[in-house]
């Protein structure tokens, strides 16, 4: 039985390369001839190389039972330079944290990378991986309606051509959605919808939350007293609004979680009490 446990680590800062969570299979390579090790090293090297050209890629190294498939995904607002910087951090981290696991996934603030042997079990793209819920809460139908509207905007946005990365806001509720690069627009919308439903179930009345599924993740933050002025007035208006939305979600993450999952700039923020939790997933036996 393959078991891959998910483990969070709390970190401070807005660095795209900060660690969020890992999943490592308990089962290790049985590799007296080093075939798996060589295939894995080739795979990771190829993925790192590709990250300087595009923000998502998949590849396979090796053949038959020794083949290893892997992928990386960078957050939609990252340039290829920043994507490459993020992805290039992961191979050494995976080696240190997961050793010779037959499957692994490592999530940083700005990107993730995963690999698995060819015979590793397959799961749905909406398989639940990890969640974080803020400690502050807002009760009442007004908050629920705002959150539902913002979630619907995100779902419709990716289905109607905004791409596989979305940031938006509705009446002080900011939302971000990211899908894996091999999803179509409708599948992305469906994945985000599942993630939004899951975060409402898991986080209930929390004013901020995140949910990671196998093929997508979402984050939201609500500011009942309005968003502080955190964007630069010298930025072009369109870029300023986009940055403000992304930073708004990040600030919510700082206040609620004690770590940043998405952020475009360094932000000073007061850290508040947090709670985080993960459950069984593809990575559990």
TrEMBL record:
Pfam families cross-referenced by the UniProt entry = Stress-antifung (PF01657)
What GO terms in the biological process aspect are recorded for it? Answer: plasmodesmata-mediated intercellular transport; transport of virus in multicellular host
Q: Which InterPro entries match?
A: Cell2Cell_Antifungal, GNK2, GNK2_sf
One GO CC annotation? plasmodesma
Domain Gnk2-homologous: residue ranges? 17-120, 125-225
Membrane topology annotation: Single-pass type I membrane protein
Q: Where are the transmembrane segments?
A: 247-267
User: Where does this one sit in the cell?
Assistant: Cell junction, Plasmodesma; Cell membrane
Q: Which domain of life is it from?
A: Eukaryota
UniProt KW keywords: Cell junction, Cell membrane, Disulfide bond, Host-virus interaction, Membrane, Repeat, Signal, Transmembrane, Transmembrane helix, Transport
**Is Magnesium a UniProt keyword of this protein?**
no
Q: Which family does it belong to?
A: Belongs to the cysteine-rich repeat secretory protein family. Plasmodesmata-located proteins (PDLD) subfamily.
Instruction: Indicate what this protein is called per its UniProt record.
Output: Gnk2-homologous domain-containing protein
Species per Swiss-Prot/TrEMBL record: Rubroshorea leprosula
